[in-house]
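Q: Please design a sequence for this.
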C-alpha cells in the first residue's frame, strides 16, 4: 500500500514538470484527478507548526504576514535507515541535510516566481523529505487565509488567496485538513467556514484543533474533539505545538512530540482521548486514509491516463514528426516535405487525383470553341478577298497567282488565333494554381510548419507565373510560324492566271470574277 502513495507522488512530480498544475488547459489535466491532502487554515492558526510536527523537522519559513505565497507539495518518504535529507524538484541533483537551508530555499524559490513582492502564485514548489521518522504521506500547504491586506500587498490579496485555496479544495479528490485554533471561537474559523462551503457533509474534511494548551483556564475543547460542537465524518484531532519560546530556543521536535503525548495523557479533560490525539497520530491517520482513497481511485486514474495518452498521441500525429535540431536535419526534413507536395501535385496531373482533366478540357473544349467564335467569314468574304487580291496586283496585273495577296489574306486570319491561344495559356495557368492549392492542403506534413507552407505556395505560384509568360511567348511564336509557313507548292496549287476567267486588259476590279474569288476563298478555308 505504501507504494501507492509513492506512485501518486511520482505522477504529481511529472505533472508539475509538464506544466500541469490543475489549472484550465486545452490539454487534459491529470493533477485534478490525483488524491491529495490540502492543509487549510487562517494566518496564525498554527498551520506551519502542525506540518513541522508531522515531519519532525523545523523547515518552514516563518514571519509576520503571508509567509506561504506558493503551494508547497510536501512528499514524505519513510526510509528504513540512513540520514534524513530533503530534495527539491527544481534542484534534482542536490540533497539538503541542513533543514535551515531547506527553509531558505523555499523562500528563495518563492521569490523567483513572485519577485520580492508579497504577491502569490499558484505554481507549486515540490519538496520531498526522506526520513525514518515519517510516514508515507503527501500534503499540500496552501497560503493562509487572511481578512485584511497589509502594506505592499494587492488590494485583492484576500480574494486571491481564497480563490486559490478554493480551487484546490473544491475538487472531489482533495482531502481537506482544516486547521483551527482552540483559543478562538470555532464559528469564526476560516478553515471550517471554507471547508463547509465546498464539503457541506464533511465527507472529506479532517478537523485539527491547535493551541489547546493556550485556552483560558476553566475552558476546554472536549466538545469539539468529541464531535459535539461541530460533527465531521472523521474524528477531530487535537495537537499541542511548540510555543514561540520553544521555537526561539530551538527545542528538538522529538522532545516536543514527547511533551505533547504527556500533555494529553496527564490532562484530566483529555486523557480519555489521548490515544487519538497528537501530531504522530495525525500523520498515521492521514497516511492510512490517503492510501485507502488512492486504492479506490486507481481504476479511474488508469482509465484517465489511457484516455489522455490516446488524446495526446492524436495531437502528436497532427503535429507531425519531431523537428530536427541541426541544419542538415532541417534541410532533409524540408526536402522530404517538398517531395511529398511534389508527389501530390503530380498525382493531380496524372489523374490519380482530380484536377488534371480540366487541363485537357482547355484544349478539347475551350480553345476549339474560341476558334469557332472567330469571325473568319468576315475576313474571307468575297468582297475582302477581291480587295486583297486586286490590291496585290499593284499597277500591273500578275501573270501568275498574286502571292502577296494570298499571304495577306492568310496572315489576317491566322493573327486572330493569337487571342484564343493566349486565353488557353491563361486557362491552364489558373487550373495549375488551383491544383497547387489543393496539393498544399493535402500535404499533411506542411500543417506542422505554417511558414514553410506559405513559402512553398509562393515559390510554386512564382514558378507558374514565370512559366505562363514563357508559354505565351512560345505559343505566339507557333502562331507566327504558321503565318510564315507558305511554300511554293502551296501557291502552285492555286488557280493560274489563265484559269481566272478574266482578261488582263479589263479594268482592275473586273479582272477577277466571283467564280475565281470563290475558288480562292474555298482554298483559304
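A: Design:
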Amino acid at each position: 500500500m505504501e507504494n501507492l502513495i509513492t506512485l501518486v507522488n511520482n505522477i504529481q512530480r511529472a505533472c508539475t514538470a509538464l506544466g500541469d498544475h490543475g489549472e484550465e488547459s486545452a490539454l487534459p489535466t491529470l493533477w485534478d484527478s490525483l488524491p491529495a491532502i490540502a492543509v487549510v487554515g487562517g494566518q496564525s492558526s498554527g498551520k506551519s507548526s502542525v506540518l513541522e510536527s508531522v515531519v519532525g523537522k523545523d523547515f518552514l519559513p516563518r514571519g509576520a504576514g503571508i509567509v506561504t505565497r506558493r503551494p508547497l507539495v510536501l512528499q514524505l518518504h519513510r526510509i528504513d535507515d540512513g540520514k534524513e535529507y530533503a530534495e527539491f524538484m527544481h534542484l534534482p541533483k542536490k540533497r539538503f541535510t541542513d533543514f535551515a537551508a531547506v527553509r531558505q530555499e523555499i523562500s528563495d524559490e518563492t521569490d523567483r516566481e513572485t519577485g520580492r513582492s508579497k504577491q502569490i502564485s499558484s505554481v507549486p514548489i515540490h519538496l520531498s523529505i526522506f526520513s525514518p521518522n515519517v510516514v508515507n504521506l503527501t500534503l499540500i500547504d496552501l497560503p493562509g487565509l487572511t481578512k485584511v491586506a497589509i502594506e505592499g500587498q494587492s488590494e485583492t490579496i484576500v480574494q486571491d488567496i481564497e480563490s486559490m485555496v478554493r480551487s484546490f479544495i473544491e475538487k472531489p479528490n482533495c482531502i481537506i485538513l482544516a486547521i483551527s485554533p482552540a483559543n478562538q471561537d470555532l464559528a469564526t474559523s476560516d478553515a471550517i467556514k471554507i471547508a463547509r462551503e465546498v464539503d457541506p457533509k464533511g465527507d472529506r474534511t479532517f478537523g485539527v484543533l491547535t493551541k489547546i494548551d493556550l485556552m483560558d483556564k476553566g475552558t476546554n475543547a472536549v466538545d469539539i474533539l468529541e464531535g459535539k460542537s461541530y460533527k465531521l465524518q472523521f474524528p477531530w484531532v487535537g495537537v499541542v505545538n511548540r510555543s514561540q519560546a520553544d521555537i526561539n530556543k530551538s527545542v528538538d521536535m522529538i522532545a516536543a512530540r514527547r511533551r505533547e503525548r504527556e500533555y494529553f495523557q496527564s490532562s484530566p479533560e483529555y486523557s480519555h482521548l489521548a490515544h487519538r490525539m497528537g501530531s504522530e497520530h495525525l500523520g498515521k491517520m492521514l497516511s492510512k486514509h490517503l492510501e485507502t482513497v488512492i486504492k479506490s481511485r486507481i481504476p479511474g486514474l488508469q482509465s484517465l491516463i489511457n484516455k489522455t495518452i490516446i488524446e495526446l498521441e492524436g495531437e502528436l500525429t497532427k503535429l507531425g514528426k519531431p523537428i530536427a535540431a541541426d541544419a542538415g536535419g532541417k534541410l532533409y526534413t524540408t526536402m522530404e516535405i517538398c517531395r511529398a507536395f511534389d508527389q501530390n501535385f503530380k498525382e493531380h496531373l496524372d489523374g490519380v487525383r482530380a484536377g488534371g482533366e480540366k487541363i485537357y478540357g482547355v484544349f478539347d473544349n475551350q480553345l476549339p470553341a474560341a476558334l469557332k467564335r472567330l469571325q473568319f467569314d468576315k475576313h474571307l468574304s468575297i468582297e475582302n478577298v477581291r480587295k486583297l487580291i486586286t490590291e496585290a496586283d499593284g499597277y500591273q496585273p500578275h501573270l501568275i497567282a498574286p502571292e502577296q495577296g494570298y499571304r495577306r489574306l492568310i496572315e489576317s486570319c491566322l493573327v486572330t488565333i493569337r487571342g484564343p491561344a493566349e486565353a488557353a495559356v491563361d486557362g491552364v495557368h489558373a487550373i495549375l494554381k488551383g491544383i497547387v492549392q489543393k496539393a498544399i492542403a493535402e500535404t499533411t506534413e506542411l500543417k506542422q510548419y505554417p511558414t514553410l507552407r506559405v513559402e512553398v505556395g509562393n515559390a510554386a505560384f512564382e514558378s507558374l507565373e514565370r512559366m505562363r509568360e514563357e508559354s505565351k511567348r512560345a505559343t505566339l511564336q507557333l502562331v507566327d510560324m504558321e503565318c510564315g509557313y507558305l511554300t511554293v507548292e502551296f501557291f502552285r496549287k492555286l488557280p493560274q492566271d489563265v484559269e481566272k476567267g478574266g482578261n488582263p486588259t479589263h479594268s482592275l476590279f473586273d479582272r477577277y470574277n466571283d467564280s475565281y474569288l470563290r475558288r480562292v476563298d474555298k482554298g483559304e478555308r
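Q: Thanks. Anything notable?
A: The two ends are 100 Å apart (CA to CA). The chain has two domains: 1-19+31-312, 337-519.
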